[in-house]
Amino acid sequence: MALIVHKYGGTSMGSTERIGLVAKRVAKWARAGHQMVVVPSAMSGETNRLLALAKELAPQRQTKAYARELDMLASTGEQASVALLAIALQAEGMDAVSYTGWQVPIKTDSSFTKARIESIDDARVRADLAAGRVVIITGFQGIDADGNITTLGRGGSDTSAVAVAAAMKADECLIYTDVDGVYTTDPRVVAEARRLNTISFEEMLEMASLGSKVLQTRSVEFAGKYKVPVRVLSSFTPWDIDLQEEAASGTLITIEENVNMEQAVVSGIAFNRDEAKISLLGVPDTPGIAFKILSSVSAANIDVDMIIQNLSKDGKTDFSFTVHRNDYARALDVLQEQVAPALGASEVIGDPKICKVSIVGIGMRSHAGVASKMFESLSAEGINIQMISTSEIKVSVVIDEKYMELAVRALHKAFDLDAEAA
Ligand code: ASP
Ligand code: MG
User: Which CATH class is domain 3-256?
Assistant: First the structure.
């Protein structure tokens, strides 16, 4: 008997019919003798629907008071779905009970719309499990120290599920979703992409934060920190498939020692179009320049990702960085209106039509020449690299967005990730 957490995404909870299938699947696991905690998302489209209502009433609001009400509102999506799942399980003849985040309670800080979980009191949940109940907990939400309902950011149910699994020392957290695992890259871009049987926490963290949308990045941070084995698997298999077969399907995110070692040097290729590039030309190359530029940007609450400073010529240098595309216009304003005049920069130029492509793999630690192989295959396709950044287990480049798919395909092939023809 194990303690198992299941998480079901919005599509899996998309209709009463689908909720009924989730209930049958959960009941199968419970009847096999496992203690079951289930963390569902809102029914698909529900969170968007709720947030759109708020926008109709107040399109421009950005106050803390407004954010508080957004969380109050959005949290109801999951409140409805947990109750429906409990009802469906009861209809299956199971003893089941649902709780919202505040009833557990799941305590968070007070950053409305992007709260962080601080602690989870599992006493109530444990008592129910001991009494033979299936416990269903709302994803996406908690309560702050002042008793306000908070939410964890879009896609936050992944984080709720992993956090509950960590707090309860669950044997495994299974994330049921509309894809059947983590792939070497997005199969919509590369038809030869393969599902990975295993991937390390660290690689998954890079993949998630570099643009693979399978899991909320924060959930992977949690999983790695508390070493919670997380499995991503399909919720579209028939509910009554053999439990052992289901339990071994999908992709297991785990400690490095458990990762399949015959795996290639590069495990996956991530990409995203969410960034934009800004350059400041002809700034004086003196101490404090990077600080002055970036502190003005961060004072405007804009996060910076990659940064490059060129060699200087005649005491002047060029400075480039990337920001999220949503912040692009604002960042340009800050630079044109404040930074460039203050520093005497000659020009500010921007380019929102870029993308970031990254190769990720723990194998890079022990293999030289991975970056140069990447650059070689991009050059063979005639793709110009605009920026580069590296870490121990990843290399990212910024290129023109029109070459994104070409680059991803070329790299997938160059690093032997294409599936062997069967
Ligand atoms: N319902 C929330 C959202 O749509 C949380 C989640 O689904 O994970 O973002
Ligand atoms: Mg999701």
Answer: alpha beta
